[in-house]
Structure formats: C-alpha cells, structure tokens
Design brief:
The relative contact order is 0.20. The chain has an eleven-stranded antiparallel sheet with strand order 1-6-5-4-3-2-11-10-9-8-7, covered by helices on one side. Strand 8 and strand 9 form a beta hairpin. The chain is globular, with a radius of gyration of 16 Å. The longest helix is centred in the middle third of the chain and has 12 residues. The two termini are 19 Å apart. With 202 residues, the protein is mainly beta.
Length: 202
C-alpha cells in the first residue's frame, strides 16, 4: 500500500496550471488545479490504471501517488519503464514525460481528473465555473471498509452530465467522459475515499 518516494529533480517541462474554468461557450470539462492540502490527508499509494483512448487498445499502467500539504506527485510506469512524472505544488505543474506517454493525454487533465475523483466534493464545487455542477449520487456506506461503494460523482454542464466517476468494486473507480473521449479505470486503496484509510494527514 505504501509507495516509494517519487523524486523529480530533472523535470523537463514547467508551466502554470490553468484555473478550473471552461472556455466560453464550450462544454469542455474544466481542468481542476486544487491545492494539494485541500485533499485533507497525506497519501502514499500504489495504483493500477487502465486507459482506454478512442480507437486504440487499452493501455495498462502502474502509478505511484503521493500527496502532502505542499505537493502532489504522480509517477506512471509501464513494464518497468517510467512513462511520466507529474508534480503539482499548487502554483506550477511540472512534468517529465517519456516517449511512451500517450500523446492525446494532457498532464493537466491527469491532475484534474485525479482531483475530481479523490478531492472533497465541497472543495471541487468551490473551484468550478458557475455553469458547472458536481453532484454525489447514491449513499456512501459510512464505514471505512466499504466507503468506496454506493457513491458516484457526476460533473454536469447546464444539466447535462459530462464526466462520471463511479465505484468499480471496493478499491477501484472509473472515470467516463460523456463525449467518449476516453475512459480510465483506477484500482487504488480506498477507492474514491482514500483519506478514510489514511492516517491523520495535513
């Protein structure tokens, strides 16, 4: 359950992450860039990802996710080869991407989707543009062992669901885009409620 410390001292790219907003007149889901501390706990998790891009075979990746009050670190690995490292400190998004990184997948989207699935609903809702709404659907179990089941999240624009995050077993969840752009399945300790099983965090 614990992950190795992710170091990224030689990052290739550095950019300021966009605020959570959608282009005017567009229904493209906004990309979140919430502060690391807004998660409400510290994490060190090993995850398994299955990425399904349109018209391409599914790609399986392993991930090492670390979050503390200052930084989000995510490293993606495939067959022992590092695919990419993403580091977010609340101000800048730094990336180191190999040639195996999926070209159609923006690192800012990876960060935003991860936060959409794992960060508290209230923190996400405060960051969304006025025309967007995040809802929890279903009733969480209330116990740490089963809290990932029974509750999904729907991000909607003017009443139409654009992104759905739903449990896929006790320790997994799926992210689906209504437009069919891509799908992501994440097997992660704690599922969509990782802080329920984490120690006292930030």
């Amino acid at each position: 359950m614990s992950a190795a410390i992710i170091t990224a001292s030689a990052l290739a790219g550095c950019s300021t992450a966009p605020e959570a907003r959608a282009p005017q007149g567009d229904a493209t889901p906004p990309r979140l860039a919430l502060p690391p501390a807004a998660l409400g706990c510290e994490l060190a998790l090993q995850q398994h990802l299955v990425v399904q891009a349109p018209g391409q075979p599914a790609q399986e990746l392993d991930a090492l996710l670390e979050v503390d009050a200052q930084t989000v670190r995510l490293a993606l690995v495939h067959l022992g080869q590092r695919v990419g490292v993403i580091v977010w400190d609340g101000q800048q998004l730094q990336t180191e991407l190999s040639r195996w990184w999926p070209a159609q997948l923006a690192p800012a989207q990876v960060l935003g989707d991860m936060q959409l699935a794992l960060w508290p609903v209230d923190a996400i809702a405060r960051a969304l543009p006025a025309s967007w709404m995040l809802q929890e659907v279903g009733t969480p179990s209330g116990s740490a062992s089963g809290s990932a089941s029974g509750s999904a999240r729907r991000l909607s624009h003017q009443g139409q669901t654009r992104v759905e995050i739903r449990p896929a077993g006790g320790d997994a969840f799926e992210i689906l885009y209504a437009a069919g752009a891509w799908q992501l399945r994440v097997a992660s300790p704690g599922g969509m409620r990782p802080c329920a099983n984490a120690g006292e965090g930030a």
